[in-house]
Design a protein that fits this description.
Helices cover 57% and strands 0% of the residues. It is mostly helical and 90 residues long. The chain has two domains: 47 residues, no CATH class; 41 residues, no CATH class. The protein is globular and about 45 Å long. The two termini are 24 Å apart. This is 4Fe-4S Wbl-type domain-containing protein.
């Protein structure tokens, strides 16, 4: 397991590790994607924040609009995201 002191300053910061790209979609920067040894845990940490849950809900909405997700799947995934938000540490 990685020591907290060994983690980069950007660890878990949604706006640094999954910022909005020029096309209006979030993108992982190249320096994170190819060169960071803790990229998976970092992105998981970032997506576990309230802002990360909001991003997940935006993805769900986009998927529904383009027909990639049914109403019931959308409802289920939004409910799961909402529950994670309620159980988060403040």
């Amino acid at each position: 397991m990685t020591n907290k002191d060994d983690l980069p300053d950007c660890f878990g910061d949604l706006e640094k590790v999954f910022p909005m790209g020029p096309k209006g979609l979030r993108e992982t920067p190249e320096k994170c994607f190819y060169h960071c040894p803790v990229k998976t845990k970092c992105l998981q940490q970032a997506m576990a924040t309230k802002n990360g849950i909001q991003v997940e809900e935006e993805v769900i909405e986009r998927s529904t609009k383009v027909g990639a997700m049914s109403f019931f799947e959308r409802w289920s995934r939004k409910k799961q995201a909402h529950r994670r938000g309620l159980t988060m540490k403040k």
